[in-house]
Structure formats: C-alpha cells, structure tokens
Design goal:
- It is built from four helices and seven strands.
- The protein is of the alpha+beta class.
- The protein has a single domain, classed as 3-Layer(aba) Sandwich (Aminopeptidase).
- It has a seven-stranded mixed beta sheet with strand order 1-2-3-4-5-7-6.
- A hairpin with a 2-residue loop joins strand 2 and strand 3.
- It starts with 5 loop residues before the first strand and ends in a 15-residue tail after the last strand.
Length: 164
C-alpha cells in the first residue's frame, strides 16, 4: 500500500471552511466559526495545525501553550481519512512544536466513551490522571483527564517539513 502523502502546516483562516465541515462531522457539540477565528486571531497561546491531502484539509489539531504546558483542545479527522495514521501525525507535530517552544507537559480531556481517541493518546504516552464529571454539557458525559510528561519523543517518520 502506498504511503499517503499528507502535509502538516499551521492552520490559517483560509482553512476554516474545511475545518468546520470536519468539526460538524466529528462532534455532537461542534465549535463555531467564531470560536476558531478567535483562536487563530486573538489567542496568543493558541497553536493549530491542519493535515492536507492534495491541498485539501483532512484533519486538524489545536492547543494552548500556557507557561510550561500544552493543553490540547481539539483533534479531528475527516471520516474518509480516519484510521490512516493522520491523527497520530498531527499529535506528533503539536508535541514536537511544543517541545521546541520549551513545553514539557501535555494534557487534554477526552470523552470517557471515545475509546479510539483514548487509545491514540495512550500510544503516545498519555496516562489517565482523573475524571471531570459531567464535563460535556450537551449530554453530561464525563471527561477523562490525560497527562503526558514530554521527553522530546516525536515520531521517527516525521521529517522537518511536517510531512508524514
């Protein structure tokens, strides 16, 4: 099987229509265009990347760099591109970027029912450290809090240009 040609680049405003479509397909309580615009234009702590296949946005990841921590806010992959290693590549990219910025810890919340995401994070060394009861207001679902002590361990298959 041919390795997929995916390029990972910083998210820009021009990517928002495709990002919003993936957001709608991925979440029952999706972020609004305003939320993404605010992150990109007004949040000095925000860092976002998109994965491109043939110039089309097929996935994205975002987070906040606050003092010495990365807080991953969202990660989503278009339905036709799931289970192809793209989420892992995006996670590697944001961890690598954060490491270069002096970040040494990463955290996130994930729905307790989202087994595929939990497994992805565990593969990257995240561990469960707690639970936030009723964190997701649309259905009162609990969030698993996951944490990673960073050691500069990025994927071997990433090159410096953000290609997978």
């Amino acid at each position: 099987m041919r390795k997929m040609d995916i390029k990972i680049v910083p998210m820009e405003l021009m990517h928002l229509p495709e990002v919003l479509a993936i957001e709608q397909d991925s979440f029952t309580d999706p972020w609004s265009e305003y939320a993404f615009r605010t992150e990109l234009c007004a949040n000095p702590h925000a860092v976002y990347f998109v994965a491109l296949a043939d110039g089309q946005v097929v996935a994205y990841i975002g987070g906040w760099l606050i003092i010495d921590q990365l807080h991953i806010t969202n990660l989503a992959v278009a339905p036709d591109y799931r289970q192809k290693g793209i989420a892992m590549a995006l996670l590697d990219r944001i961890l690598e970027y954060s490491w270069q910025e002096g970040i040494r810890e990463a955290t996130l919340e994930v729905r307790v029912s989202n087994n595929s995401a939990i497994n992805l994070y565990r593969k990257k060394g995240f561990v469960s450290v707690g639970c936030r009861p009723g964190y997701y207001i649309n259905n009162n679902e609990d969030a698993l809090i996951m944490w990673k002590e960073m050691k500069g361990d990025v994927a071997d298959d990433m090159d410096g240009a953000g290609n997978v």
